[in-house]
Input
Amino acid sequence: MKISLNWINDFVDLSGVNYAELIKKFTLATAEVEDMYDVGKDISGVIVAKVVKCEDHPNSNHLHVLKVDTGSEVVDCICGAPNVREGMLVAFAKVGAKVIGGEIKETTIAGFPSKGMCCSKEELGLAEKSDGIWEIVDDLPLGTDIKKAYQIEDTIFEVDNKSLTNRPDLWGHYGIAREIAVLLNRPLKNIVVDDLSYYSQMDKVPVEIYTDSCLRYSCIKIANVTKKESPENVQIRLFRCGMRAINLLADLTNYVMLELGQPMHAFDGNACQRIEVRDLSRPTEFTTLDNQARTLDAGTMMICNEKEPVCIAGVMGGLNSEITENSNSVVLESACFDSSSIRKTAIKLGLRSEASNRYEKSLDPEMTVTAIGRYFYILRYIDSGVRIMSGLSDVYNRHYERRTISTTAEFINHYVGVNLSNEFITNTLVALGFKVKNDGFNLQIEVPSYRATKDVTIPVDIVEEVARIYGYDNIKPEPVKEVIEPVEQETEHLMEYDIKLLLAEKFGLNEIHSYIWDDEASNKSLNIETTSYVKILNSIVKENNAIRSEMMPTILKAVNENKNLVSDFGIFEVGRVVTGLDEEKNVIEKKHLGLALYSTQKAEKELYLKVKEIVESIADEFLNQKVSFKLKQVQKNYVHPINNAQVLIDDKVIGYISLLHPLTKNAINKKSAIAVLEIDFTDFAKLIPLKLQVKMPSK
Output
């Protein structure tokens, strides 16, 4: 996410601040900054000028011969822009000026002198691409330095989005400004909004919510918008933050989103007479703003004009409610939706937008009305004739729980390792927006709504808030003074290590480490059928979306991948599997030992007897018990129908040994011999070893 320090300066006074030091503090205390760079500082000598004469070049079909008034003189200029015309104000780079691409020099073009250049926004670093020169619509004196008229210069820093996953309050400039104000110990200016209660007596746009996935829906109707384009500084800020200007109404929804972190949407007023938020009851075809027809699944949350869908909630608007040049009124939406619902829809449709990225982070429902107030305040400043045509519609469908955390300064200092005063702790939390009641010992801390959606929930979260503002780099590392007591290792863990050691040292086997997923493609190629009880919904990799229920398909995949490297080898792994679901639909997770012997030189009988020897050795070594076998009891499509046996200890089935079914063996190598062993290691480890009875030998 790109952050403009010009924008931050609207809310925190950054005068005298070393930006490099500030970004270092921000990285240590708040979120990782990936990059910081200056923009516009390499632009100089560009002024506001007027084209006083424009004639077609006699020897060119696209060049124009201009006379340009710079305020101090009239100069000749050759321009190839299609939109140049007499009387327009332009950004003019004088001889010696610097723009993107280099320094402007006096030259001759197609036989005519040119003492400067009429610049496009692209040449000033204000647009990715321009079709013509920049036409300045503001009434500015000729000769005005363009950098004094507009915010050409700025410093941008990019924050790693992953580091903001649990901080929905930082997905806008104001949230970042709050953090910076605390780090610099400077006051944070309030957001100026329009008072919407003034319009409470007016009729409201009807709103009904028929889904739990919509937490809050606020909207208001606006009309008499006469301005079509956004002011230049608004367009510049949008561009600096990675967005393009469209039109005034759409630009301001993006502007407020980038400022407050609250996504907004503007509908054509005629297309939205009655708002209904509902989930689709059946698959529906819907055309989005990008003019793409999309098939939406049943359950997709939609904004509807009565029952006609006009927007995919939180993701993208519909073409049937798009604002056009003929729109004379708009319905302005500011809503809060369930994060998981938006994430599922966005992934399913492949439509990850700036809005959906924010909704996925569990936004603060309290921001919806603030965002509308901010939008109208800015709009009225730009277009004084704009009018509100309805009262504020605000349906608060579901509230987040208000959080109050009780802790003490002693608890905080114990974790931080520094003796911080009650005053510092209280002031830090208050500056971050928390409300603190301090009776001299206990701290009752009310978490602000923008931190309570999923971020700050327990006392140690308060410790983190205080510690990061104090500065992790200010905490001197000291030895921890704690009582250290030996911890006895779990029997299962010790046994697992010893069995691995036995298999490696005594039998010369190699341990492998694999993923927990069934490989559908591998299983199919080896004629293996297996059952999975847990699958990942909306998995990007469809062939690896199920958690395995047995180890052997994984082991055989590894055998198949290594068969051409070694002619004779054995591999094993103790891995996790899910063998089913309990009565409450929770997974039954276990550990299994999977083992395979492969050879192109030895006979199947030799390998079969070897796996029998291995399991007998494990039982004897760790349980002091004998193993028994039940022949032809294993019902798996990839094991040999005859040469297989269940493994029993104390009459309890704990696994099996087998040769492979010819279809599976031949899929690996027709000329090979393969024997396998799989043991339920979790059940094996629970068996109680028999005590050895020692007798004195006869004399």
Q: What stands out?
A: The chain has five domains: 2-39+154-184, 44-149, 196-396, 404-471, 491-686. DSSP finds 19 helices and 34 strands in the chain. The first strand starts at residue 2 and ends at 4.
